[in-house]
Amino acid sequence: MLEKRVDKATGESLYYKKHESGLLIYIMPRAGYSSNYAIFGTRYGSVDSKFIVPGEDKVTEVPDGIAHYLEHKMFDQPDGSNVFDKFSKLGGNANAFTSFNMTAYLFSATDNFFDNLRTLLDYVQSPYFTKESVEKEQGIIGQEIKMYDDNAPWRVFFNLLGCLYVNHPVKLDIAGTVESISHIDNELLYKCYNTFYNLSNMAIFVTGDFDPEEALAVIEGGIKNNKPFKEEIKRIYPEEPDYVAKHYAEQCISVSQPLFMMGWKDIDVGYGGERLMKKAIEMDILCEMLFGKSTKLYNRLYSAGLINNSFSAEYNPQISYAFTAIEGESAEPKRVFDEILDEIDATKLKREDFERIKKVCWGDYIRSFNDIEGYAHAFLTECLVDADYFDYSRVFESVSFEDVQSRFKQHFVRERAALSVINPIKE
Amino acid sequence: MIQSKSINENITLSYIPMNKLKTTTVGFYIHRPLCRQDAAKNALLSLLLKRGSKDFPDMEAISKRLEELYGSRLSTGVSKKGEDQIISFEAECISDRYVPGSEPLLKSLIKLLCGVVFEPRIEDGGFCEDFFAQEQKNLIDRIRACMNDKRVYAHERLCEILCEATPYAVSRIGDEESAAKLERTELYEYYKNIITSSAIDIYVAGEADIDDVASAVSECIGGMSFTCAQIPCTKLLEGGAKEPREIYEHMDVTQGKLAMGFSTGVAPGTDDYWGLAVANSIFGGGAHSKLFNNVREKLSLAYYAGSQMHKFKGFIAVNAGVEFENLKKAHDEVLLQLEALKKGDVTEQEFTAAKMYLINSLNSYYDDQLYMQSFYLGEKIVGTNYDVEYYIEKITGVTLEEAVAAAQKIRYECAYFLTGKEA
Q1: Could you tell me which residues are beta bridge partners of residue A42?
Q2: DSSP secondary-structure letter at A45?
Q3: Which of B129, B153, B143 shows the shortest CA–CA distance to B48?
């Protein structure tokens, strides 16, 4: 049976069930929507290259980039076709992505939602890799990696992570390197698949204009034989010190003017759930209070021509790591960096700003229901850190000005800040 | 479903009820003919006007106001639909029913927006000197930044080459030389002139009362007098005059880019248009297409390979990111796939998938207010004023023969290759 919950603020409902296979099932009906959307995700991303399979004693270590490689290879069908063909036939628009902590398979469809859903469930549970098909992918992924090599916003981001982290694999490229992926073969792919695609490590979220019980029947009918793990998959991350690897990095790429990303490493990590959600809300409020477009800092830097409207700040919460990142374009990134650090030292937070910014965050929360895909991603992202996005309003209400003040002192520490710069290539 | 109302001879207000969404979106769209001498002016206006209005004199005041309105959003910019350069002002708030007890958000937001568009902050007969200097620099930086994303850059260069000597070759944000020459009092004179002599479309999508919006706008423009204006027209690209051209450019990049241009001679909304839309979808419209399945999947030449219709101007552009030494190979494969399409070498699966893909996208407009506004704005510009339902009906009715017949109008015009530095 589905458990039903209702959100007070919006009147939207969420249905939930934990299936005997271990799969978490979430269904959110949205009457009147033309599109329907499903996302089927596993708690497995680029940072999970070292782990102990439940029931084994020894540590398994796999090449960097394998989670992403596996995602690509999941599209191959035993008959040599590509699963996109099946979705196309049904009018489904399918895709997938791999992030640091998640691999997800998704589609949107205005028609044939249940048939598309059956296809999604089927292919994600049907790995099929051959030596040839695995080798073929080296070319495509090689081009994907090279595309990112020329992508300045991507490079500035990874160079910042390289500053903030000494050992944590979050600093490594999600797709790996041309060299690391050359070590991937079908056996390794099966090993990772059988570990991380166990349904007890996965969740599915479906949303759109349909009956939740019918959707549940389709999902349950599509679940293949799966023995849930009794223990957790043990993920092994190297010991990460509190200090940053370095405070500065730069690289030259063919761009017209320098771009930068600066960040603070969060050392209050190691937990998920509601506690993490509360921290993330505090940090979202802080980012707006400190760096938003109504702040003195923003307006001073903007008027001085040191930043433009590409300037934005964001907090990235995960269980094993977290950081704040500010990105922007500037002719003088180092000056921006110094001015921001000085401003933070001199800042005294104001309660009236806190109250106003809380309105902004509430508006953002209400708005997040609009885009069913965005909502599904937000929900699944929370779900995979053991938090519940449907609890947002309750947790949000619990955040006080005092919470934000102490978070501010704890997080924005000069010694844990770093700057990454991309400079134009000098002719 | 759409309701329209004339505010005066130039300004039309349209309301699209979409109250299943939790926000309401308002867009002001000023139509200007796309041309080299004015493109940078319009782009700079879009940046300057949001710096301050009579009531909210600077960015800090505007931002604070938006924050008080529960994080309402305001963005301005320029876009081109054919040879119509549109200066746009788009704002969005959460619908009033989610903030009981608060001031009415939409009404306050429209007031703010009207101020930004019609009552800019002025000093000594021009735009504020500081704002002007900062935004002129920002515009020049943006023009220079067009080369940053090589995928977009290659596509823009192709359009420029393909449409040379027509207004469509002009960049949406103008060129650096024109931007550098602008001056704050002259630009203000230009603004005063165009604001009362351009066609302006206002769209509201979400939950609103069209009469309330109309009276708020009327109130703001009460003292202004307007001269009647038309929406700019676009001349279709004339192809076929020359042999296909190949242009090579070099930059310091790791991956090469291939862009190819094809004329069609088909105007939007005409009988051939629907078949062409399906043909393009088969050719390179997504993961179901010939380009995706051959250039990427079969030959492993690219991570992305696809085609895109420029429907107002009547051409198709193909884009792919490819290893330098494979650029020519990918180019030849694109032409091979086009030939196959023209010969009717299309499977039932390719054909139905291509149609469903288009219908899927059209249906999804119902879930997105900005897409919806953009769709109706496009119809207004073409002059057809069809609705989404009509598009779906027409696409559904396209036969394979019609798609293939339309494909035969596609003519290869030129290729643009972006490669690495020569050794």
Answers
A1: A103, A202
A2: -
A3: B129
> Between residues 213 and 242 of chain B, which touch chain A (CB distance below 8 Å)?
none
Nearest CA in chain A to B65: A294
Q: Which residues of A touch B360 (CB under 8 A)?
A: 35, 91-93, 108-111
SS3 for B343? coil
Which of A86, A366, A373 best probes binding to B when mutated, by most B CB atoms within 10 angstroms?
A366
User: How large is the average pLDDT for residues A273-295?
Assistant: 98
| Mean pLDDT across chain A | 95
CATH number corresponding to A248-424: 3.30.830.10
Q: Please give the CATH architecture assigned to the domain spanning A3-235.
A: 2-Layer Sandwich (3.30)
B77 touches chain A (CB under 8 A): no
**pLDDT for position B422:** 67
Q: What distance in Å separates residue B53's CA from the closest CA in chain A?
A: 15
Tell me how far apart the alpha carbons of residues A83 and A102 are, in angstroms, rounded to a whole number: 21
| The token pair that represents A351 in the structure block | 């309660």
Provide, as residue numbers in chain A, all residues whose Cβ is less than 8 Å from the Cβ of B58.
Answer: 299
Contact state of A150 with B67 under an 8 Å Cβ cutoff:
no
Report pLDDT for A225: 85
pLDDT of residue A217: 97
For A296, the enclosing helix (H) or strand (E) is: helix A296-303
**Phi-psi region at A271: left, alpha or beta (left = phi > 0; alpha = psi -120 to 50):** beta
Rounded Cα distance between B263 and B310, Å, is 10
Phi and psi (nearest 5°) for A40?
A: -120, 110
Domain boundaries, given as residue ranges, for chain A: 3-235, 248-424
Which H/E stretch holds residue B390?
helix B388-397
* pLDDT tens digits for range A192-221: 999 999 999 999 999 999 999 999 999 999
Cβ proximity of B70 and A363 under 8 Å: yes
Measured CA to CA in angstroms, residue A21 lies from A225, A298, A336, B168 at distances of: 8, 51, 52, 57
Average pLDDT over residues A56-68: 96
Closest CA of chain B from A296, distance in Å: 8
Its pTM stands at 0.92
Round to whole Å and give the CA distance between A319 and A270. 5
* pLDDT value at residue B296: 85
* Residue B264: Cβ within 10 Å count: 25
- Mind telling me how many Å the CA of A39 is from chain B's nearest CA? 17
Q: What is the mean pLDDT of each run of 10 residues along chain B (423 residues)?
A: 93 96 97 97 98 96 97 97 98 91 91 97 95 97 92 96 96 97 97 97 96 94 92 93 90 92 97 98 94 88 91 97 92 97 96 94 94 97 96 98 97 96 67
A:171-230 residues touching chain B, CB 8 A cutoff = none
Q: How many CB atoms lie within 10 A of CB B194?
A: 19
Query: Chain A within 8 Å of B300 (Cβ-Cβ)?
Result: yes
Q: Which residue, chain included where needed, has tokens 């695995």?
A: A134
Supply the residues of A annotated as catalytic.
Answer: 71
- CA-CA distance, A290 to A355, in Å (whole number)? 14
**B116's tokens:** 């930004």
* Full set of structural domains in chain B with CATH: 3-220 (3.30.830.10), 245-419 (3.30.830.10)
Same fold, A3-235 and A248-424: yes
Token readout for B82 is 């054919």
Residue owning tokens 């106001």: B65
Region label for A46, one of left (φ > 0), alpha (ψ between -120 and 50) or beta (otherwise): alpha
